[in-house]
Amino acid sequence: MMNDQQTIAYLRTPAAIRERCDRMFKLACDRQLNYFRCDLSKLDKTADYVIEVMRENYPDLNIPFHSRWRHFEVGDSARLAELDISLAKLTAIEKAKVKFDLAIISVLLDAGAGADWQYYERETGQVFRRSEGLAVASLRMFCQGVFSSNPEQPLQADAKGLQAITIQKLAPGFQVSPENPLVGLEGRVKLLQRLGEILTQNPIFFGEENRRPGNLVDYLLQNKISTFSHQPTRPSVHLPASLVLTAVLEGIGEIWPGRLTITRVNLGDVWIHPALGGEKESVRYIPFHKLSQWLTYSLLEPLEELGVEITGLEEMTGLPEYRNGGLCLDMGLLQVAREDMLQERHLPGSEVIVEWRALTVILLDQIAAAIREKLNLNESQLPLVKILQGGTWNAGRKIAAQLRPGGVPPIQIESDGTVF
């Protein structure tokens, strides 16, 4: 039996996500869940569909990580090249810190925008919606210094700047109006304000001076692993992906509102499901850490630019959100127990959504394994993070657009701007 601190540490691991979700998956296969059934006879068809989408997007299968950086590249724009030019005079570590600042802020602002919101990018004349729109808007705001308290250093997010964020500051950047409503705007503002507070409370992760998310770079480099390979004078520096995730969860885990807690420690994207029986309530907790894992994926690229080798990617899980989960439903891998579920809106903590997300995690693993077998590639050649990008997320969006007006997901979520 684990004590409270051991339980908290365990629930922050990818291993816990898979273990708890796998228990839900077995129950679904035995038809013991209230809302969903699994039909693995559809796995082959689903894998073929995802491969088709992967080849459309990346004909040579040279697929990048599924991260926020892909959204910044939308519309064939040179936004990231422009950012790199503006960072040219900085040291490599300072560049990484700026990119950490940007990625962390942008990911936290990425929760579902709703079907009625869009962003017009004046610089290119293009219009973007949903995740891409939120990404481009947050990048433009970042470059304008919206999240910095120092006019002389606009390209940063710092504690004072984030604590000073208001709806009045954020709404214009997202072009919000009665005709262009953004779901969860107030939740996003509170999340950034809370991040500003957390930066001041966690100097181990975010430094003693000029406290900013990007100082997480220093923490991770201090905890890197160096090994000597063929050339004894040149150590190989590597970081396990799970260590980056743990740093994210421990560093900013307290920003999430109204979540489950153990000994007053906020668990983040962790939910309860009654089907996982046990004497202790925490045995029924199911962790997902969707935004935190996606954020971790987004932080790996700036680390790689520093020459850090990322290891243990296979330990990370798929992202249980409405595109990946929608793919599983729309392809028939998941089937609803009652059709009226699709007509209602559901809260993130509802049994319906917790089941949907848990089953999505395991089905993504199975889809990935089927894809690798069909393509004759191994896990290191085609890790899950690339299949997500290639991949399941885009396939979920594509089939949703084919099946429903506006490409809305098959299940409607009552989002507060902090989960999806």
Structure description:
Helix content is 49%, strand content 10%. It is mainly alpha-helical. The strands form six sheets. It has a three-stranded mixed sheet. Strand 2 and strand 3 form a beta hairpin. The two termini are 33 Å apart.
What is the 3D shape? globular
Structural class by SSE content: mainly alpha
Into which percent range does the helicity of residues fall? 40-55%
What is the strand arrangement across the widest sheet? 4-5-10
Radius of gyration: 21 Å
The helix-strand sequence is: HHEHHHHEEHHHHHHEEHEEEEHEHEEHHE
- What is the percentage of strand-forming residues? 5-15%
- The tally of strands reads 13
Q: What is the average per-residue confidence, as pLDDT, rounded to a whole number? A: 91
The number of helices is 17
